[in-house]
Amino acid sequence: MSVDTSAIEDVFNEPGCGRNDNKTAAERTMGCTRQLKPGEAGGGCAFDGAKIALQPFTDVAHLVHGPIACEGNSWDNRGSASSGSDLWRRSFTTDMNETDVIFGGEKRLYQAIGEVIGKFDPPAVFVYQTCVPAAIGDDIKAVCKAAVAKFGKPIIPVNSPGFVGSKNLGNKLAGEALLEHVIGTEEPDYTTPYDINIIGEYNLSGEFWQIKPLLDELGIRILSCISGDGKYHELACSHRAKAAMLVCSKAMINVARKMEERYGIPYFEGSFYGVQDSSNSLRTIARMLIERGAPLELGGRTEAVIMREEARVRAAIERFKPRFKGKKVLLITGGVKSWSVVAALQEAGLEIAGTSVKKSTKEDKDRIKELMGRHALMIEEAAPRDIYKMLMNSRADMMLSGGKSQFVALKAMIPWLDINQERSQAYMGYIGMVKLMEEIDKALYNPIWTQLRRPAPWDEAEVNRQTNIPHTDSHAAENSTAVRGHSSAAGFKERANASGRWVVGHISAAQATCAVQASE
Amino acid sequence: MAIVSTSEKSCTVNPLKMSQPIGGSFAFMGLRGAMPLLHGSQGCTSFGLTLFVRHFREAVPMQTTAMSEVEAVFGGQENVEQAILNIYNGAKPEIIGINSTGLTEIKGEDVERFIYLIQQKHPQLERLPLVYVSTPDFKGAFQDGWDKTVARMVEVLVHPVETGRARDPARINVLPGCHLTPGDLNELRTILEDFGLKPSFLPDLAGSLDGQIPDEFTPTTIGGIGVDEIATMGQAAWTIAIGAQMQRAAEAMYAKTGVRFRLFERLCGLVPNDEFIAFLSKISDRPVPLKYRRQRGQLADAMLDAHFYIGGRKLAIGAEPDLLFDLSSMLYDMGANIAVAVTTTASPVLQRIRTEEVLIGDLEDLEELAKTHGCNLLITHSHGRQAASRLNIPFFRAGFPMFDRLGAGHQLSVGYRGTRDLIFGLANLVIADREAKHQPTPDTWRSVDRDFKTVPSYPQ
């Protein structure tokens, strides 16, 4: 087998990881990948994670070495927007066949690299290792080395066969590949005191562009965004940044920490979701740049921008308040970095019925209690069955979650909004928060809910016959249904019971069990 | 006779093909109370699951044996055992369908033996059907996974019938290829029932993935054909197989139960449906209902109306073999010129596609050939949208996956009605494209080429 075990151990021992710090020495040797449970497991593999982390580099060719399953089944499923090259949207794979499996796939890989360079002339090729070639011993590192000698271009091996672990481990292995082969290999044309790196931001639905104009306005230059709308040359020069903001620490903490260690680039963990976090992040970026030599006036200009933007958001949110009054939202986000969003939702008058805390640290949980009260509903295991239970018990009017758990809510006729990576709306920064409110409003007040919650007229008649209730006129029936349906999900349950059938909901939660398995 | 060739490239660019194991899992999804299980690392399942959810926009059951590095070396018997037990205890399935992947195939795992040992060890599993199918990722394509898996279902789940035993003359087995949608199966069911026939579909995706809000809580498939019904398929009078891929399963059925079969290689178009309806009329001994006489007339009329738009179109089509054969034949019948045909895997129907060459290749091949041939209509699955936009030609989505439009499960191509709707859909696309992009201007008539041929206002 050709798996880089030292890189994996290195990732497991990440000292920058808050969770890792809280572990005993014995626990740490176990690694940080969850024990996989056959028949109960969900989620992607390490290859999936590596590809997700790096695919947003838009001008490089991403070549997957493996049989058709790895790339053929998975390509083209994430919308990370590009301001230039569209090469990242093309899919490249060696599509190994039986002969390659028997005689080894190295030759095919080498030829494939040549073909990609010949046709598309990218600044670099990223080569992803998958299970089958790893298991038969294809040495992608050696092939990449030979290809570099032949083609005179950076060819980066990303050693991430699926069987080494989870998607999250794959994210980090991708980071290791960047640290080992790319970062620091080129020099920027010029530098400024305002150069920053953004790490762990993927520009999904182009949402980072909601923030970029503010940075532009302040004269802050993104030397490299790793990896959203990223370009190879910027990445290779990223070691010259003055400071870095780490957006997703789960995926890329190793990159931020090692860049600090190697190149002295300080980093902070921040978020652009929600008003408060956006302001704090801008403020921190300015402060760090000033500490590293940027003129002091940057601080004042930043405060002015923050004040202006916050006032605009507050004014925009005002109109939602009466419509959100008394409405409860259930948040299934994994529990990371949602606090700023929670604060904004609360400011608009929404009540948070509960949240999942699967990926939350102890501090995260403390913040939940702080924001949502001591009795905040928290759920550890976000299996669909549990989400469903929470949805019903909390009598939520709406659920916000990732796409894979949508059926838990939708099939129970409860409004739902995608706030995870597959969403098509962008919710970042100040504008994004207003957009989020708009979407919540649209979902909550869509007229379909009252129609869908009505049973078919013949079912209603059936209930009336069974329970000997005199047949009411249809208008009254409609009203009562609407009221009951609207009040809460639990209202449904009663109605469903009364008619002797599980008309909605209950059912589909479990059905969704399966779909959600591929979540985070 | 088309020449069938294979792309010589080392690097597949923009794959048309998807893997065998998920084609197998897809077949298991047409069984009631089923849990498809992929024996491989968890990414294999996760990718397939995401693909199905994006296509159908439904919850989809699929599980993994979650192979890690250690088991990949030392063998995955324990993973198979744990997976089966966990699914048995958690999901209470009526059947578990297991497909291998590339990772477990290179190890040469004897999963049939594993299953035997696991059932010996856990007597509670003895009555739970466990169907295993070998489907390495590095061979074949999605369609092959489906056809192998359905054939295996017949071999394992159908009870043998002695020859000469009385059969139920109204009972019909239908073995649909994976190119048919749940909507197609519902259409076929209606047609068969209108002839007084009682069809059993194996697999029956219409029961599980046609967008219902189910009445019962279930972590497995929500509908489809039950194991009990499959067991009795040997009592049917006929087996109807649809798509050449189903020959293997139909033969398996015949070998095991002696049920005669008739293979319909395609059910899109006037002539194939005439044959189909005539066959149903014969085996049911009933006249063709008025409804189908009217529908036939409507299809004929649709063909008349649409031939102005489809006739002469230069078509590039990329699809799995049976869908490619199905659609390209119908469009050829409508006067289209099948200029480019690309597919994923070998099949006996490829030679009979009405074009010069069929290439086993990828979407890059399709795009380049379409460009060379000056095609002005592209048909393939959703991944082809980028190629269509670069080529700036109208794009019709057909096949799996279709993740960027709604209603994939209800798209129709079978029967007179299905063909009629499909033809209208295609023709309307052409009309819309002409209106949007090819309005005549003073300049379109001004330029003439060297041979004094006028440049038409829109490409022919």
Automatic annotation (TrEMBL), chain A:
<feature type="compositionally biased region" description="Polar residues">
    <location>
        <begin position="469"/>
        <end position="482"/>
    </location>
</feature>
<dbReference type="GO" id="GO:0065003">
    <property type="term" value="P:protein-containing complex assembly"/>
</dbReference>
<feature type="domain" description="Nitrogenase/oxidoreductase component 1">
    <location>
        <begin position="45"/>
        <end position="444"/>
    </location>
</feature>
<protein>
    <recommendedName>
        <fullName>Nitrogenase iron-molybdenum cofactor biosynthesis protein NifE</fullName>
    </recommendedName>
</protein>
<dbReference type="InterPro" id="IPR000510">
    <property type="entry name" value="Nase/OxRdtase_comp1"/>
</dbReference>
<dbReference type="InterPro" id="IPR000318">
    <property type="entry name" value="Nase_comp1_CS"/>
</dbReference>
<dbReference type="InterPro" id="IPR049939">
    <property type="entry name" value="NifE-like"/>
</dbReference>
<comment type="similarity">
    <text>Belongs to the NifD/NifK/NifE/NifN family.</text>
</comment>
<keyword id="KW-0535">Nitrogen fixation</keyword>
<dbReference type="Pfam" id="PF00148">
    <property type="entry name" value="Oxidored_nitro"/>
</dbReference>
<dbReference type="GO" id="GO:0016163">
    <property type="term" value="F:nitrogenase activity"/>
</dbReference>
<comment type="pathway">
    <text>Cofactor biosynthesis; Fe-Mo cofactor biosynthesis.</text>
</comment>
<feature type="region of interest" description="Disordered">
    <location>
        <begin position="1"/>
        <end position="23"/>
    </location>
</feature>
<dbReference type="InterPro" id="IPR005973">
    <property type="entry name" value="NifE"/>
</dbReference>
<comment type="function">
    <text>This protein may play a role in the biosynthesis of the prosthetic group of nitrogenase (FeMo cofactor).</text>
</comment>
<feature type="region of interest" description="Disordered">
    <location>
        <begin position="469"/>
        <end position="490"/>
    </location>
</feature>
Automatic annotation (TrEMBL), chain B:
<dbReference type="InterPro" id="IPR050152">
    <property type="entry name" value="ChlB/BchB/BchZ"/>
</dbReference>
<protein>
    <recommendedName>
        <fullName>Nitrogenase iron-molybdenum cofactor biosynthesis protein NifN</fullName>
    </recommendedName>
</protein>
<comment type="function">
    <text>This protein may play a role in the biosynthesis of the prosthetic group of nitrogenase (FeMo cofactor).</text>
</comment>
<comment type="pathway">
    <text>Cofactor biosynthesis; Fe-Mo cofactor biosynthesis.</text>
</comment>
<comment type="similarity">
    <text>Belongs to the NifD/NifK/NifE/NifN family.</text>
</comment>
<dbReference type="InterPro" id="IPR005975">
    <property type="entry name" value="Nase_Mo-Fe_CF"/>
</dbReference>
<dbReference type="InterPro" id="IPR000318">
    <property type="entry name" value="Nase_comp1_CS"/>
</dbReference>
<keyword id="KW-0535">Nitrogen fixation</keyword>
<dbReference type="Pfam" id="PF00148">
    <property type="entry name" value="Oxidored_nitro"/>
</dbReference>
<dbReference type="InterPro" id="IPR000510">
    <property type="entry name" value="Nase/OxRdtase_comp1"/>
</dbReference>
<feature type="domain" description="Nitrogenase/oxidoreductase component 1">
    <location>
        <begin position="19"/>
        <end position="430"/>
    </location>
</feature>
<dbReference type="GO" id="GO:0065003">
    <property type="term" value="P:protein-containing complex assembly"/>
</dbReference>
<dbReference type="GO" id="GO:0016163">
    <property type="term" value="F:nitrogenase activity"/>
</dbReference>
